[in-house]
Specification:
globular, about 60% helix, mainly alpha, nucleus, Deoxyhypusine hydroxylase
């Protein structure tokens, strides 16, 4: 998506004040809207403003800052992302997202840094670095270069605008799924690849995003089977994919994840945001309940707050979700960070 017209210095200052909550009274979901407005600008000024937010108390917000820096896909964001990854005082969810963003930017100079953290104490950070390394290597491969050339064509319209941690499997890299792609046989094959713990996470993620691109109810069911995995990172990506698909068929399994107090906060928060994007009537009471519950982890409560704002947007007449410059000039709602 093309960046909107260059904002004025006053508009940038207002976005910065909203994102960083300089007045101390900006609601979290409004800070998210300012963040996604800045993301759409894709400018050095936007990167600089976003980068100032990593001192915030909210791990959810900082995780989203890292996600947006990765989606901007500018090497100018690499120094701050590397600093966040190296900062062990940051929540692992934030560090993992910084590593994932480095993979999205896909600079070969990030490889030595990512390899340093393959033995990190936190499993989600280790696994994210593994996937990010594989993503950068795939982008440099013959297949990866060919896909990038195709994507550079202004006439090429991708199914999803996001830069994902892994590309779909080769047959589903571009265009609408073909009849053989949506067959029961192919979905079963992709499900087997998704759930095969002997494979690399990168290869399993490729099956995950292929199933997303298929998007049928059987594909959703295959993805939902991934919630039985023991990797919080893997399960949180399943929830993120459901937030992209926006299929009401995924609501029951997402509600089950959200309400499971034994599940990782990382997974529950992503389930909450997916439910907010799907925005069917039955999800709102659940999001409201978990936003208010004192026994609910902060990152899950905050995710429910943001998800309720997403739910309200989806059920409103608003044209744009991230419209911090006014006039509908930025971008419509997209899934928040993986």
């Amino acid at each position: 998506m093309a960046a909107p017209d260059r904002p004025s210095p006053a508009e940038l200052k207002n976005l910065e004040a909203t994102l960083l909550n300089t007045a101390g009274e900006v609601l979290l979901h409004n800070r998210f809207r300012a963040l996604f407005t800045l993301k759409a600008l894709k400018s050095k000024a936007a990167i600089d403003i976003i980068s100032k937010g990593f001192q915030d108390e909210s791990a959810l917000l900082k995780h989203e800052l890292a996600y947006c820096l990765g989606q901007i896909k500018s090497p100018a964001a690499l120094p701050v992302l590397e600093a966040v990854l190296r900062d062990r005082t940051q929540d692992p969810m934030v560090r993992h997202e910084a590593a994932e963003a480095m993979g999205a930017i896909s600079a070969s100079s990030s490889l030595p840094v990512l390899k340093e953290f393959l033995a990190d104490a936190d499993r989600a950070v280790r696994e994210t670095c593994e996937i990010a390394i594989a993503r950068i290597e795939w982008d440099a491969s013959e297949e990866g270069k060919k896909v990038q050339q195709i994507q550079a064509d202004p006439e090429e319209i991708p199914m999803y605008m996001s830069i994902d941690p892994a590309p779909p499997t080769s047959g589903l890299l571009r265009g609408a799924p073909k009849p053989e792609d949506v067959s029961a046989v192919n979905i079963a094959k992709l499900r087997a690849q998704l759930l095969d713990t002997k494979l690399s996470l990168f290869e399993r993620y490729r099956a995950m995003f292929a199933l997303r691109n298929i998007g049928t109810a059987p594909a959703v069911d295959a993805l939902a089977d991934g919630f039985a995995d023991d990797s919080a990172l893997f399960k949180h990506e399943i929830a993120f994919v459901f937030g992209q698909l926006l299929s009401p068929h995924s609501v029951p399994c997402l509600l089950k994840v959200l309400e499971d107090s034994r599940e990782s906060e990382m997974v529950r928060h992503e389930a909450a945001e997916a439910l907010g994007g799907i925005a069917t009537p039955e999800v709102l009471p659940h999001l409201t309940e978990w936003m208010k519950r004192e026994d609910c982890p902060r990152v899950v409560r905050e995710s429910c707050q943001v998800a309720i704002d997403m739910w309200e947007y989806e059920n409103s007449n608003e044209f744009q979700y991230a419209d911090g410059l006014g006039g509908g000039s930025v971008e419509s709602f997209e899934t928040v960070g993986a």
